[in-house]
Amino acid sequence: MWNLISFFGSANYGYDNKYYVSGTVRADGSSRFGPNNKWGFFPSVSGGWLMSREKFMESTKWISNLKWRASWGQSGNQEIPNNAYETLVTETGGIIKVIRYGNPDLKWETTTQTNFGLDLGVFENKLTFTVDYFDKTTNDILLAVGLPSATVGQINKTYVNAGIVSNKGFEFGANFQNNDHEFKYGISGNIATLKNNVEKLQQYVTEITDDKTHTKTVVGQPISSYYGLKFDGIYQNQAEINSTLYSNTNGVKPGDIKFKDLNGDGQIDANDRAFIGSPIPKITYGFSFNAEYKRFDMSLLFQGVSGVDRYNDLKQILDYDSRPFNSTTAVLNAWNGEGTSNTTPRNTMNDNGGSQISSVFVEDASYLRLKNLEIGYTLDPKIIGDRYLRLYISGQNLLTFTKYTGLDPESTSLIDQGTYPQSTSILMGLKFKI
Q1: Whether the Cβ atoms of residue 375 and residue 366 lie closer than 8 Å to each other
Q2: Burial 250-266 (b: 16+ CB within 10 A, else e)
Q3: Is the dihedral of CA 154, 157, 158, 160 positive or negative?
Q4: Taking the C-alpha atoms of 277, 189, 22 and 60 in order, what is their torsion angle to the nearest 10 degrees?
Q5: 325-360: pLDDT as tens digits
Q6: Model's pTM, two decimal places?
Q7: Within 13 Å of residue 210, how many CA atoms lie on the same side as its CB?
Q8: 213, burial (CB in 10 Å: exposed 0-12, middle 13-18, buried 19+)
Q9: CB within 8 A of 245, min separation 6: which ones?
Q10: DSSP assignment of 270-294
Q11: Using CA atoms, how far apart are residues 88 and 82, in angstroms rounded to an integer?
């Protein structure tokens, strides 16, 4: 059981239908934090200037709306288990054992966001644009971290305020709607950029490693970046192996995967690991279209992302595993002699390098997908007795353009072990009013 108590206040002011400002203040107290930091205080303020209503804009008839916007605000996060700040112990036969060390200084995670924006409408708002810049920084991130087992033994993770992560980018949107003729149509699109970066970590948490998802979080990189060996082709002959792995070949044979020896010590080990991809998209975008002609109507929606990586673990299981599983047709292009392939290793029941966590399995998961398409026809009310009847056919996930070899590039899992893909569906139906 836990408790949350909140106080909230707001104020708004407008002047001359051109200048606007508003502010809010809230205070939240949560039983999930210790007595030192139960309360969090989160203010926000925003303002707008409707520039198109100024007298000096009266001669600019083609501009229907021009508004500048700015805002700054904070919000809090308390999503941790109850009593996470307390130390947990057990007692068995008079022996007390620590299960988890508490953290009495645990406090609210705080997100601060600054926005600057512009709204523009021209030609009686037939064509509109929006532009926004955002700078979002999350401080005191709540995270469960494991303490060194050599020091405290095997115990549960302790919750700490782990560091600072920033997200910055631009958002652009445009919309055009033309209803002046028998053929009516509208076009809209949006695109957003994102730069994610870890700015700071807690002094005793220099890095956060997750072996299950093959990711590492460190200062200067996107959060949960993939970490492993870097693919460098296929070994073509024994001489190439001997000249590259002069310190320790570790049983490598021609046809095996070649990894980059980043520290140049003549062997491949954990010291040659590096950041090999980011699961956070750099660009997201969408496009929609709607149209009406007489009694026909149509709408469609495209959606996509770019600059995103995904660890395709299913690829390792099917095509690189030493166990006797069914494989994809990719193994038909496997190395079977010097010069035959520099991308796909030899087929073998032994390890050919495919057991390593590496960039071999990190793929570009960018995609463009036709999310929805609908075509309809509305019958003439005179024919059906002044009633409304519309027939339509619609489809979801009809087309996908991607280089990703997994089942679904839209998967948001850090590691894709065969995420069940979104289905393609086609529906036929009718809408009517009696």
Answers
A1: no
A2: eebbbbbbbbbbeeeee
A3: positive
A4: 130
A5: 888 999 999 999 999 999 999 999 899 999 999 999
A6: 0.88
A7: 15
A8: middle
A9: 252, 261, 266, 267, 268
A10: GGG-EEEE-SS-SEEEEEEEEEEET
A11: 12
